[in-house]
Write a structure and sequence with these properties.
This protein is of the alpha/beta class and 251 residues long. The protein has one domain: Rossmann fold (3-Layer(aba) Sandwich), CATH 3.40.50. It contains 9 helices and 10 strands. The strands form 2 sheets. Strands 3-2-1-4-5-8-9-10 form an 8-stranded mixed sheet. Helix 8 links the parallel strand 9 and strand 10. The radius of gyration is 18 Å and the shape is globular.
């Protein structure tokens, strides 16, 4: 039996050892809450192609299943037998069985969705927030200011303390995510106050083809990332394109 400092040293050794074990993407469970929209569908496809166990969540199981069936047909057309089928279920069930939970509902419904399901998260899971609070007024896109500074900080306050929130996929264009025949060729900025959770998400993103994860630091950085999304939307509208995105040169 270990005691005192020896016990702490043993626990520290276990943590270091676990961090050295590479992730097996085929064992990673990814659930998309509100995954029936364009961005949720695109992310479901990209995660499935990467090899993860993907589930689509919705308020009704019928809508989730219909979306999953449609996405599975798209994946089957690629003829890759190694791709795992996308599953489906009600939001609460998908949350309960997923290690990564992606919140892909519109920001206007994000807080109420989290509050309705805050007790459904399993121990050790990570919430990935992709939401950006924007409004369109008189043909212009505008960032909606929040008291907490960002959507991610606003939502983190509504999670159980033991569930870390990581901001990611905020600047990738939804239209491009869904076009699985097209390379992403961009960076995914990842921010979160839990370094361990942030690094886990970055490692997993590394399995998504042509997408590079960039450590953006603590959740405070979400304030910048969300405004970068507004800039990209404005560029899309001004130049009549749909795929403006970011890549850090020199990194």
């Amino acid at each position: 039996m270990l005691a005192g400092g020896n016990l702490e040293a043993f626990r520290a050794g276990l943590k270091i050892a676990s961090e050295d074990i590479p992730m097996n993407i085929n064992e990673l469970s990814v659930g998309l809450i509100g995954g029936t929209g364009e961005e949720g569908r695109g992310l479901a496809l990209r995660w499935a192609l990467a090899g993860a166990q993907v589930s689509i969540g919705s308020r009704t199981i019928e809508k989730a299943k219909s979306t999953a069936d449609e996405l599975n047909a798209l994946l089957a057309a690629r003829g890759d037998a190694a791709i795992q089928q996308i599953g489906s279920g009600e939001n609460k069930d998908v949350i309960a069985r997923s290690q990564f939970v992606l919140l892909t509902v519109p920001f206007a419904h994000a807080a109420s969705t989290l509050e309705a399901h805050r007790e459904d998260f399993r121990e050790g899971s990570i919430l990935i927030d992709i939401t950006v609070p924007v409004s369109f007024e008189q043909g212009r896109v505008r960032y909606v200011e929040l008291p907490e500074g960002s959507a991610s900080e606003h939502l983190k306050a509504r999670l159980p303390e033991n569930i870390p929130l990581v901001a990611a996929f905020k600047t990738e264009p939804a239209h491009l995510l869904a076009e699985i025949g097209e390379p992403l060729d961009c960076d995914s900025f990842v921010a979160g106050d839990s370094k361990e959770a942030r690094l886990q998400v970055m490692e997993a993103i590394g399995f998504i083809e042509s997408l590079r994860a960039v450590d953006a630091g603590t959740l405070y950085s979400a304030r910048t990332l969300e405004r970068m999304t507004v800039l990209a939307i404005g560029i899309n509208r001004r130049h009549k394109i749909k795929t403006a995105r970011y890549r850090v040169i020199g990194l």
